[in-house]
Amino acid sequence: MNKAYRIGKIIGIPIKIDISFLIVLPLFAWIFSSQTEPFGFAGIQSEIIKYTLSLLTAILLFASVLVHELAHSYFTLRFGGSIKEIRLHLLGGVAAMKKEVHEPLKVITIVAAGPVSSIIMGVLLLFLSFKLNPVSIIDGNSLFLVFFILGYVNIFLGIFNLIPAFPMDGGRILRAFLSTRMDYVKATEKAVLIGKIFAVLMAILGLFTDIWLLLIALYIYGNANREEQMVKMRYTRY
Ligand SMILES: [Zn+2]
């Protein structure tokens, strides 16, 4: 079921792609090919250029998810932890820890490094896209769109990951912050509760504004308990 292929090794960490990734890559390429400017390449006449740029954007999007995970991993290694592997899958990436770091301040640095790297990458990519100074997509000068889309999505991913709810990075930052004042299980419970309140508020807002917001809220709510159960299971054993 969870078959993964190893594609390489960076800073000593094996990089693997999940089989689900092979389904989602063409799907993303298709989405980019069907969206109009500036979020896609639908306006390009030449089919071959349209699909090549769409596929390139999809591949680079996952490469930037990899950079996000590598940022988490780099600081994990620096603070004495170790990473078993980084796996790219359907919904992004996961860096699987072998040896965890526990000091709250170090945890905050490790977790924040991901979204911060996404936002920095996003800003640089947007800057690059404006530097390429687009005349018009019809002129075949459409490489800037690749940078624009990647820049935009990376900034979105960075900010989205800062939402203070599990399974987002923001939830982990919140727990690390809380764990400076209480024990780890209590901090997890509290962070889960705050995440749930956040998800409910988002769902209510989504009901009146955007259906996507509602779906994201449901996803966050559904994942909230999982982290709590995992932590409780692990810590009641001792
Ligand atoms: Zn992250």
From TrEMBL:
What is the protein's membrane topology class?
Multi-pass membrane protein
A GO biological process of this protein is: proteolysis
Taking the first listed entry, what is the main subcellular location of this protein, grouped into a coarse class? membrane
Q: What are the entry keywords?
A: Hydrolase, Membrane, Metal-binding, Metalloprotease, Protease, Transmembrane, Transmembrane helix, Zinc
Signal peptide start and end residues: none
Task: Identify one Pfam family in the record.
Answer: Peptidase_M50
Q: Which InterPro entries does the record cross-reference, listed alphabetically?
A: Peptidase_M50 (IPR008915)
One molecular function GO term is: metallopeptidase activity
Entry GO terms, CC: membrane
Question: Which residue ranges traverse the bilayer?
Answer: 12-33, 53-77, 107-130, 142-163, 197-221
Domain Peptidase M50 intervals:
57-134, 143-201
Subcellular localization is given as: Membrane
Cofactor(s) for this UniProt protein: Zn(2+)
UniProt superkingdom: Archaea
Family assignment from sequence similarity: Belongs to the peptidase M50B family.
Protein name (database record): Site-2 protease family protein
* Species whose genome carries this gene: Methanolobus vulcani
